[in-house]
Write a structure and sequence with these properties.
By secondary structure, the chain is α/β, with parallel strands linked by helices. The chain is about 35% helix and about 15% strand. It is built from 12 helices and 14 strands. The strands form 4 sheets. Strands 3-4-5-10-11-12-13-14 form an 8-stranded parallel beta barrel, surrounded by 5 helices. A two-stranded antiparallel sheet has the order 1-2. It has a two-stranded parallel sheet with strand order 6-9. Strand 7 and strand 8 form a beta hairpin. Helix 4 packs parallel to helix 6 and helix 7 packs parallel to helix 8. The protein is globular, with a radius of gyration of 19 Å.
Length: about 375
């Protein structure tokens, strides 16, 4: 079956078409430095066709969660080098998701005087602070035009740092309500300059970030994650015509670049909206049908055999099954994920899921 066959996404070589989706796990400590837990966690999953790391902040101001890793300091680069080396030693491919959280943060999390966004519009609700308390999402500083350019360059430097750390490529996080996505929605972006108003203007930041990153480290190592019609964290996309216009503008802007892949999170990956992005952008395509349900083996096979995508990204099954590709190929029973342990500080629910070999040895 094609799901278990090798493929290439640009310069990225995959041993199979199962991709580990980017998954926030908050295990990198106070200073965002990848540690032994992260090294073990990612190395365990090296037999997946490609690993996309958890969202990693390019600059301190863009940090969204306590325990989230960064790729800004020398210590963080060195920590990620250990992760990349461990994955490569086991024959795997790993790319880093660059995630600037924008307004989804709090100064006590970012440890900076401010948080930023396209406009001075707060994300709804509360966030969890490092001490376990909750706080209302603050009103962000609206980036000036010059500061937008600085945010683009922050992604560029982070991409350079990721490649210097030995990762095989990077994915720009343009989804799930974070900074790049915030620019796309009229609810979070009320600007009146060239980055606001029309769908083409609201698409501009995403295109500029990816274009600049591709120029810096090579388009054939770059991807972007998109989540059309996924209203989350106050980034509301409730107008179908506007959604189509924004994502068409993004796809048209990305089409000339020759990207390694486009990674789309959507409940209906075979639908016209998603497949329209695929046709317009013309890049290898990765899909994920949603993080609220378990992607199963039959769905993954159908996606690939039906040419809905070139690879499929999976979340919870990859959390719970470090050897997911082997288990799916053998149609073996899976470990069940433990959602109550998704976010934590220890290896419990992170590095302690048994492999199929270990399970069979325990009952032999």
């Amino acid at each position: 079956m094609k799901l278990f066959e090798p493929t290439a996404l640009g310069a990225l070589r995959l041993s199979n078409r199962i991709v580990m989706a980017p998954l926030t796990r908050t295990r990198a400590g106070e200073h965002g430095v990848p540690n032994d837990l992260l090294v073990e966690h990612y190395a365990q999953r090296a037999t997946l066709g490609m690993i996309i790391t958890e969202g990693t902040w390019p600059v301190q101001e863009g940090r969204s969660y306590p325990g989230q890793p960064g790729i800004e300091t020398d210590e963080q680069i060195a920590g990620w080098r250990r992760v990349a080396d461990a994955v490569h030693e086991r024959g795997g491919t790993i790319v880093m998701q660059l995630m600037h959280g924008g307004r989804v943060s709090h100064p006590s999390i970012s440890q900076t005087p401010r948080i930023v966004g396209p406009s001075a519009v707060a994300a709804p609700g509360q966030t969890h602070l490092a001490d376990g308390s909750k706080a209302e999402m603050p009103v962000p500083h609206a980036l000036t035009t010059d500061e937008v350019a600085e945010a683009v360059q922050a992604h560029v430097q982070a991409a350079r740092n990721a490649i210097a750390a030995g990762l095989d490529g990077v994915e720009v996080h343009g989804a799930n309500g974070y900074l790049v996505h915030q620019f796309m929605s009229r609810h979070s972006n009320t600007r009146t300059d060239q980055y606001g108003g029309s769908p083409e203007n609201r698409a501009r930041f995403a295109v500029e970030v990816v274009t600049a990153v591709a120029a810096a480290v090579g388009a054939d190592r770059i991807g972007i994650r998109l989540s059309p019609e996924h209203g989350i964290q106050g980034v509301i996309e409730d107008d179908a015509a506007d959604v189509r216009a924004v994502y068409t503008a993004i796809a048209e802007g990305l089409a000339p670049l020759g990207l390694a892949f486009i990674d789309v999170l959507h409940a209906e990956p075979a639908g016209e909206l998603v497949q329209g992005i695929r046709r317009t952008a013309g890049a290898p395509f990765v899909v994920n049908s949603g993080f609220s349900v378990m992607t199963d083996r039959d769905e993954a096979i159908a996606v690939i055999e039906g040419d809905v995508a070139d690879a499929i990204a999976v979340g919870r099954p990859a959390i719970a099954n470090p050897d997911l590709a082997e288990r799916w190929e053998q149609d073996a029973e899976l470990n069940q994920p433990r959602p109550e342990l998704f976010y934590g500080q220890t290896g419990e629910g992170y590095t302690d899921y048994p492999t199929l070999t270990e399970v069979r040895a325990s009952v032999a």
